[in-house]
User: Fold this.
Amino acid sequence: MLVKNLAPALRSAQAAGGALLCSVTQLDGRLGTGQNDHLVDPLQAGLAGLVKTAAKEWSGLHGRVIDVAPQWDDATCAEAVVDACLKSGPVELGLGPDGDVTLDVLTQPEPRPRRALEAGSLFIITGGARGVTAACAIELASRQPGLAFALWGRSRLEPEPEDLEGVEDEASLKRLLLERSGAVQTPKELQAACARILAQREIRATLAAIEAVGAKAVYASVDLRDEDAVATEVTQLEARFGPVRGIVHGAGVLRDRRIEDKTRDQLDDVLDTKLAGLRHLLGTLRLEELRSLNLFASITGRVGRVGQVDYAVANQALDKVAWQLAAQLPACRVQSFAWGPWDGGMVTPALRQTFVNEGVGLIPLQAGARCFADWALAAPGAHAELLVGVDLPELAAADALDGKDGRDLRHVDLHPDLPVLTHHRLAGEGVLPMALGVDWMVQESRRLGLGLQLNRVENAQVFQGVSVSEPLTLAVCLESSRVEGNDLRQTMSLRDSSGRQRMRAEVVLSSEAPSRQSTSMDALPASGGYSSEAIYGEALFHGPLLQAIESVDGLNSDGIDVSLVRPEAAGPWLQDEGADWDPEGALWLDSAFQAMILWSRDQQSAPSLPSRFGRWQRFQDWPEVAPRLRARVRSVKGAMITSDICFLGPDDEVVALVEDYAATASPQLADAFEDHGNEPAPKG
Ligand SMILES: NC(=O)c1ccc[n+]([C@@H]2O[C@H](COP(=O)([O-])OP(=O)(O)OC[C@H]3O[C@@H](n4cnc5c(N)ncnc54)[C@H](OP(=O)(O)O)[C@@H]3O)[C@@H](O)[C@H]2O)c1
Assistant:
């Protein structure tokens, strides 16, 4: 509420040259990750969620999260904080006697060893009868027969009125509810009555699914915000099942509003469900009996999100509570799951569309539930904060870097009517092709390159896709550069107007041309694959300007071979390209991504979008005749497909290579692909 009231002051400071919002906590001087059971009130850490969200809501506001060692005296703390604020650096910084601490994202292999809990062990799962937590509860039950589950939610579970039984569709349900005299009076009451019936059905279905795999399941209507109700229910459960061995705290609500529009009640609803609810629950348990303690947090806590300040605060606090409890309870596996968005639960169809537009992948229900069960049954371990989702490590890493100085080299104004955006539309909105973003970074790097020539592009990543529904400006930035032997490696990025990195790539310039390569990719056997009409008529969303695939010459589980063509609809991609702009590099690179969409649709039944590539290199000029392309799949892990792609000239010489290209496949993209609104592909 303080920050809400400070909004006018922050805005005018912004207009006058710059505004800083900095939170200072005293967790442990290590951002709460010091595995210290004496963390000073881990709830302080919620402030980090506030700062990171505010920095997203007010563009130009500089957010800093600083955690100072509690043992430092006030004067030392003050000096260190002021010093850190005056320097650029990562958004989150720990300061203490052992030096500065920043956060990093590590990739974790599947947890080993797993462990078996005693038969009959009781799990309390808050929010576990519905949404994504229900899917997790069912998966956990199926892993270890004989566990017992107490599922809690606010909804009451009452027998279904006989006249509604078997009525599945919502319209008929509502008609029947209306026909009952006096039961509902207003549309709002009707909606609520219908939602109640559907919620109760979901609860019954979860109970049945858990029992079907040989576990016990009971449901109780318990509002976690009510301390007495929680204590009474725990006492009854322990009398029946023995000590509570596992907790999954999945209860949560959303009350999305920007900080300036947020009310106290909305804030309380979100914070109390997650934080007071957990306090009430842990306050009634014998913690030493616990073997698995799982808190459902969110990537929003880690990086902030517009409209979700309360949710970011609550989830960030849960993350740090997990670190503290992990240190306190060595016999218990303790972790917070900072989930990315799931394809289910509180992700409504509208929210889902937003994520698709942002290029953020959704966690499939089954895959997320399996991941949860793997970790819930893991032995106690070192890392208490897990980020789980599609491409989240990259997203989180990009956020950690925000705030470092980037030098803007060029500003690109984008508006929805630009030709390239009208020919590259997903879910009805123009989306910046990754290939074009890479091309801009290459162009700007070369302009700085002191006569050096382009050797290769490495480690290119899309952190967040750029959808253009209204005019916006992107900056092409030089993040850093360093000399490596004969090479100059320039780390480039595309940043949006609030300074967030959307794409990043390392452009390597050199005094030497890249050495020529041969390929071991033999042609695939000829196959039907796709008809030429189906390529752009059904499978791809690209408009005529980007239609570079002429035919599919071979396609099987190993990869895909295609013949390329210069599109008939040649023309500018933007409106003010420099005279020296040569669109071919971007076009052919995009065609590689298109080819892998054809592959993923055919072999994985899911469209895909580019996430990153390891290297992109051209060894000679593009030939007069359009090149042929061969892509070979290296691996498919979950939603991530990794491949190598080469472009061949008329004599089978390798003209260019894309190595370690990672695309994210998801059946959920299919709707966005359909809704492209492009002009039809030219015939012939
Ligand atoms: N879905 C996602 O994409 C996503 C992403 C990141 C994190 N998460 C986290 O994962 C958890 C589950 O999310 P979801 O998508 O499954 O949400 P959901 O479908 O809205 O389910 C939330 C559950 O919490 C229960 N609940 C809410 N307030 C409660 C209270 N005061 N006392 C007891 N139970 C309460 C609800 O039951 P009643 O309605 O019956 O009260 C419901 O079962 C949440 O903590 C959420 O923050 C979800």
About this structure: The pocket of NAP is lined by residues 126-127, 129-133, 152-155, 199, 222-225, 250-253, 273, 277, 296, 298, 339, 341-342, 345-347 (CB under 6 Å). The chain has 18 helices and 25 strands. The longest strand covers residues 472-484. The radius of gyration is 27 Å.
